[in-house]
Amino acid sequence: MPVPPARADEPTAADPTAAAYRGLAGRRRLHALVLLAVALACLAADILLGPSGLTLSDLFTALLSPDAADASTRVIVWDIRLPQAAMAALVGAALGLAGAEMQTILNNPLASPYTLGVSSAAALGASLAIVLQTGVPGLPLDWLVPVNAFVFAALCGLLLDAVARRRDIGTAAIVLFGVALVFSFNALTSLIQFVASAQALQNLVFWTLGSMTRANWGTVALMAVALAAALPFALSQAWRLTALRLGEERAASFGVDVRRVRLGAIARVSVLSGLAVAFVGTIGFIGLVAPHIARRLFGEDHRYFLPGSALTGALILSAASLLSKNLLDGVIVPVGILTALVGVPFFMAVLLRRQASL
Amino acid sequence: MNATLQLRALRAGYGRAPDIIAGLDAGPLAPGSLTALLGPNGSGKSTLLKAMAGLVPPRGGAVLLGDQDLTVLDAGARSQRLVYLPQGLPADVHLRVIESVLAAARAHPPAEGPPALTAITALLERLGIAHLALRFLDELSGGQKQLVGLAQALIRRPRVLLLDEPLSALDPNYQFHVMTLLRQETREHGLITVAALHDLNAALQHADHAWMIRAGALHASGAPEAVITAPGLADVYGIAARVERCSSGRPHVLVDGLSTGLH
Questions:
Q1: Cβ–Cβ of A242/B99 closer than 8 Å?
Q2: What's the pLDDT tens digit per position in A92-143?
Q3: What's phi and psi for B212, nearest 5 deg?
Q4: SS (H, E, C) A89-115
Q5: Which residue in A41, A116, A354, B98 has the most C-beta neighbors within 10 A?
Q6: Is B170 helix (H, G, I), strand (E, B) or coil?
Q7: Interface pTM (ipTM) of the complex?
Q8: At what angle do helices A258-280 and A141-165 cross, to 10 degrees?
Q9: Torsions phi, psi of B82, nearest 5?
């Protein structure tokens, strides 16, 4: 293999490699724009289509000049369709981002808030808040549920991190540990349901089947704020997270404070998945599937991979929400059932493809 | 730029276990020199490199680059002076070669800012892997990955370069290629390079110095030919070996069997 002599820096015009790389970056921005357009189209369809039998003109009237529309149409559009559609897109983006970060910091393609117990932990926290009606003093109950969900999600995240940091732990062992966490938290949640009053139980069942039906503008705003804080924070760490993909020791030797980067990621994952569970319940597999699709589209340069995962997650959950309302006439299938139906085969496919290296 | 690298009474180990590196003195190593770190499996080669890189926190002693003790620097400041390249990459890294080098350069960029894209492509050209720039890491061969790893390390323009078994699992072509490049880059950029090697003949052929360690202590240090000797190999590796010159006059290690000495 011949070794060409060292060359000084040359202008880009004579540097085909740099030019090719710039072309690639351009194509990726194009992919991102197409993805964004499809996600927006899905969001629009999610707003427009539903079981109420409104015509498009009714919808547009209610959207554009609410005062001219009759009261029931206004309520359907502004209090049901819009917040639910927005919530589906936001939760999808949150879970997609959280899953991508978990897969990177745990170095595990099967990691996601749902598969490793973070969502179950959040559901347990939310259930505890509802049944006990107590928690952090001074916090109103409306806040107690999301805060408790976040705290439990964070504890689960720290536990996973502690296990993943042990030397020579295999990828499979982390997944098995996560599955054990899922079982434990689900069992505790069932125990709480068992001792709960009939009224509390009704509230609790909501968490076991994720659905958008409880979305309102308050929770939509909170979810949007969380996402608007987490995404730029995550992007500010993009190079460090990309370096982490090259291995923990290599990244550390390149000057990455691995401990800090991981703790930051766990904080973001806990906020995003904790809030998602508190507002819409447990929705599985978005956090697993979205990063895999984004990885194929954008590679693992986290400047593209993280927003790509968020966008893909938003698209998937918007589509699932759209399907859940329009699949069966007059019935809204809980969206969590749909994502599980798509996600379980996907999970198995990843597992089987990776079998050799797990 | 003429600062040498010196280890003083360096001690390191994991957790609460006893020291693996127990008070090791070595060096000084001059800029532009390539040192082979030799020793049997479990002798502490990897631990020594990681301790020098600060990945295993040293329990005592100093790693001196000139007058600066690298062990007291934080990870960011140390990464401007020293890069450690571990053996392998995680499986299934879906990053393009050029992106991985960019990430290495930008993970903790120097104060004067990260290198330009053209500096990266020039480096890939120099290492003979420009044609791989847009390929994904998970589709490269072991030898190609090793060269990419070298690019990730060199783009940070370190003064000290530590490599853990850069030749493991490489075919003879890539072994020669990697060692030639290492030597060339070490000379041209005045690096102080230390590479843990199992291949004694590669050490004899390419290295300027050799450190031979046994049970975490320095057994011998000096020119490779002075370190890699029949009695030394019997002591440290427990092998009965000859060091003989081939028809082109270069020394080679020939292993005849195991010596009575304990490994």
A1: yes
A2: 999 999 999 999 988 888 888 888 889 889 888 888 887 877 655 666 667 7
A3: -110, 120
A4: HHHHHHHHHHHHHHHHHCCCCCCCCCC
A5: A116
A6: coil
A7: 0.88
A8: 140
A9: -135, 135
